[in-house]
Design a protein that fits this description.
- The chain is of the alpha+beta class.
- It contains 29 helices and 22 strands.
- The chain is elongated, with a radius of gyration of 37 Å.
Amino acid sequence: MYQKNELKVKKTPNFKILLKVIFHSNKKSVFLTSFISLLMFVSVTTLVMTWHTNQYNCMINYFEGYDWNNDYQVSAYSANEGWDTFPENLLDDIMNSMRNDVNKIIPGIIPQKTSGLFSTVLNSDTSKIYEVCTSTDEIIDLMSEHINSGRMPLTYDEIVYLQMRNKTLFNLDDVISLYTSGLYPVSLNFTVVGIIEDADAILYQDGYSKDILRWEGLLDDTSHSFENEQIFEAMFFTSKPLYKEISLLDYLPVQAIVCDFNYDTTKIRLNGLKKYISSFDNIRDSWLYNYKNDEGLSRQTSLNSFWDLANKLEYFNIIMRKETLRIMIYFLPVLAIMIFSIIEAINFSKKSLLSSFWLMKIQGVEDDQLKEIIKLKAIYMNLVIGVLGIILSLLLGSVLKVALYPNISVGKYLSGLVNPLLLYIIVLAFSFVIITEYLLLRNYLNNTVDTQSDRYIVKSKKLLKKILTKEEVLISLLGLLLFSIGFTGLILLNEPMTIISDPLVNFQNFFTIFWTLFLTGIFCLSIAILLVLVKLVLFISQKIFEIVWKSRRNYLTLSLKSSNFNLNPLRNLLIILLIAGTILYPGMIFRKSHSEHIIVESNLALGCTDILVTNWNSNESLKKEIETLPNILCTAKVTKYHYEYFSLSILKSWNCELDILALHNLTEFNQVVDFSKINSEVLSDKINLLKEQHSFLVDKHFAKQYNNFEGIDIYSTDYWNPTNEILLEYIGSYDHFPLLTQMHTLPFEMFEPTFTMVMTDINAQLLVDINPSNFAPKGFLLIKTNSKNNAEIQKYLLDNYDLNTKVSSDTLNELNVFNTNFREYFLIILVILIAILLLLLGFISSSNTFQNNIQSIEASYRVGATKRQLFVSYSLELQMVILFPLLISVIGGFFLQKALSSFLYNSLITYKPIELWIPIWLIGVILSVEYVSLMLGWSLKFSYDLKSYQPIRQE
């Protein structure tokens, strides 16, 4: 009967009441946990939104001022096509079709006004190259309106001379004999019936591309950059019907179709970058257009298309991906500090929690029900805090957006909430907090015993936990799993046979995913290692304290000896100290390191001279003319070759990419280049060694990889002539050299390393003669002046010689296009955030220490210890315990910065790797920041607890 009544009266506990009991039993812990969790969610979400906004700002800076109509590139071309007969509107149709295709990828990216031409290449009896071209109706009408003398052609043998670059080669009524190329050349006589002066300027001023009139070099070159190539001696213009008559004569001239678009980059969405790049990958190599010729026969032509826009987008995406991974690496340690801070905050009311669990258990609440309550508490509380954190971060981020990025719209700012990679950070933070809190409270529940005998059983099991606990095993397994997946994925992506067919899920998507998993795995494994390391530190500390107690017994050594290894509340604090030092370094060294580096980088980009001409065409007479201009002291010309070498030799196999800087005159180069700007005067002596035949200098990375070889054999890649070779003699190496860039990629990234070499132009020409199709040359002219303001010289060179130039301010602006201010401010904020967290942790740790040692404090107080002695004793105990982690953190952080500097601080492409500014005294500053922040919070709380402490009265 009793059992029956018991079954009737037993009721399911009210979850709301039980949750209320748990909340009331640890109010202080709930408040501290909520505060730190809120701080974390606000930090993470604000970081996500601000970083996303900064990316938009970088994208605006990246494209701002970029002149698509004057960038020495074209958007699409097709050369050496055998056009038989074609409709007159073919050029317009192709451009309209291409515009529609691109506007489907990025709506509105190409406005209505576009540029294009048909061109036929002809030769003269003096072996000079000429060009006869036509264009769209709009450009033809524009040219007709700007004929300076004469008229437009009326028959196919009449042409208009396009006078450009201040060169007058022909006059009205001149008759020019031109020849077709090929085995049986045909001679044609053309009469100049009109002259248009500054034809490229006319196009440019009306919003059309200048580049379509200087597309030379694309005939046999797919590099899409032709500023270095030999310019056609002259260009002639005609109407579309007359051009068609020329092309239908009895010969096959070399013909080309060229299109260039002026893109409206404000239409680009940051979140659509990967989709854009994937779509361009499908069409840029061979864009096809089907048409019917005049005889009604179906024809098809393909164009190399959109490399200009696609390459810009891809380069920007690579830079931003690397910068995002950098931000993640910087923030993950801070995220770990916040998580362990939350654990400390939960421990703040550990005793009251254990008591409340014990009371609920003796009232009949079962363990499964309590576990459900714990889970609901962790989820509900963190969801509320998370939502509040997102709201606060949106408000804070809005203020930052207005202050830092006023030109970014609200819509672009809010689009950061759906950025997949950055959302991963938010989800990771939420998950870690909820899981950590749940597991910790569940552990408290498991440690809540019903009887005294159970307590002893639990104690006997704790000996095994000194070696390895469940949390370390679980974190290690999770980290190992994520690390293995990420590492395996990155390795597979680098295999040559890896093919990802879906254009929307391409290499970049997988690369980012696997790198994120790889970093998260390292993060988890690092925490597991830190847990074991801290146990070792505490164990060694306890043994030292016991030895000190045996050698000299007093209140102080008694307090140190009483430190409990298993229940020591300093464990999480020590983990935080081990992490904190490593992240304090970047915030304290980046600004100084970067400000010093950017000056050297700018000088190297400028060639360590005063003015750099970037579109030099190797015109020796023009060079001498420039040297006679006022304020110009001397000049030197160089050519930069990008050489892709693939050896087909049976005995030797060697693949590489080389950037070769060819010096035309060593004496002139040493006069123009000021090596003191990069603190490397020794390079001048090495350059003089290049007078030796077939000699070269090479960067140290190349020399080191091939063990300071004596030289290399460059073989012809022509299958029919495999014995043609040149032996290059290695005479020295360098860390950096003007105009030669170095690539700093992520591990596993699919980029072939590019090495750099310096040699005379004579030696470079020998290589070009062996493999002419493998070289992509780019000409430069270095100018030394005695003027403080070179702006007037720049303008004169552009207006009179059509020479694009750069000065120091230009290179600095280009190097700062990917706004480094964000990283600078972000790292400084992290330093402040860590200092605040250490102050708060000192406060929490002091309270936990006091509560866990209350019996020891009571005993010491009763045998005569004063509160001052107790304060000194426990303060010294804390300092002795934290000393080793502090030293590990600071010293380890120093070497970690050195090891990771190539990735953490260098941009994708640099002229010189950054040299970190880490003076010896900075180590003391970092130690002081950690020590002072922690001890301040600890001292204030512990002294307050001791002052408020009242010993138990004896009756």
